[in-house]
# Entry
Amino acid sequence: MNILYIMFDQLRFDYLSCAGHPHLQTPHIDALAARGVRFTRAYVQSPTCGSSRMSSYTGRYPSSHGVQFNSYPLKVGEWTIGDHLRNSGMSCSLIGKTHMVADAVGLERLGLAPDSVIGVRQSECGFDPYLRDDGLWAEGPDGFYDPKRSPYNEYLKAKGYPGDNPWHDFANAGIETGEEGNDIASGWFMVNADKPANIAEEDSETPWLTTKAIEFIEEATAKGEGPWCAHLSYIKPHWPYIVPAPYHDMYGPEHVLPVVRHEGERVNAHPVFGGMMNNPIGKAFSRDEVREKVIPAYMGLIKQADDQMGRLFAYLEASGRMQDTMVVVTSDHGDYLGDHWLGEKNLFHEPSIKVPLIIYDPRAAADVSRGTTCDALIEAIDLAPTFLEVAGGEPLGHIL
# Structure
């Protein structure tokens, strides 16, 4: 059996119709839940991208693997899903984001060449990178946030989008029409969240990664080299909060759920909580006019993601892969969206660390559980030993 491990970035647990959202309809993810199990109490180990992902990939807590915030390197020698699965005869490949930072010092200390097979795997969370793109191609006074070459930018340039950074100028920006002509309306500014991204929908990041995943599965099937695990790791609905037409205006202020916060949270707040409430992001999301622009765009990004799940699942059915592939849908963390006077993530309220988790198992033994929900406490670190069991590997209790 194969494993398709799908992770969205910054997808809240309650922004799916199968989880009870009254306005946002996600029929394709709902259909997967109807064929599998939806876990109602699934939590990540950290509310930041890099730290959470390293926990999911290693099956260990941040206090064990050491990546306790973004931009911390995962130390050489830390076992990951890829290492475990390859030992059990299953390949493990990456399509999309990991937020991994390589332990360059550790590689040098052990004499491992970064471009060797083991060096690449140590630099890519143990995955064989079919395509690595973290989707953070912002540029500031010191240059690009991520200095690596962007395969998505190269794709857009090949499609005819001009400039050095079409990720920013087209995929994550709209158009501002003024007296002197058109200007770029950057998606980094939340005031632009209601504008359509200046890109053809089929060229935006979520369809692009879906296409790459289908290409990977087709190639793996053609090679016939045995079972595979593919980590399809989407960049959205993480900010910038901007989405191409027709998704940019599917939802409006009338679809924004009431905010969950209380004035008492501001009284004698812990300094860390107080600092987060009073930083620019917290202050922005405390304003109703910001939430009424951003949340409809966030919902549009999720609606686009669900439509791409429909495309992907239809391909799996047509190719016969739905009959021999376990499909997992989850997220690396949530998004406050103004709850508790906060934006983004980074603290430990449920909007930040509770995530969706749906598992579809095609085997007959799973028939008894189809369409059910499980209310047991589940952690993202539970996936690694689950995948190892699926691959037929022996339990490794001293690691997982």
Residues 288-319 form the longest helix (32 residues). The chain has a mean pLDDT of 94. Residues 76 and 105 are 9 Å apart (CA to CA).
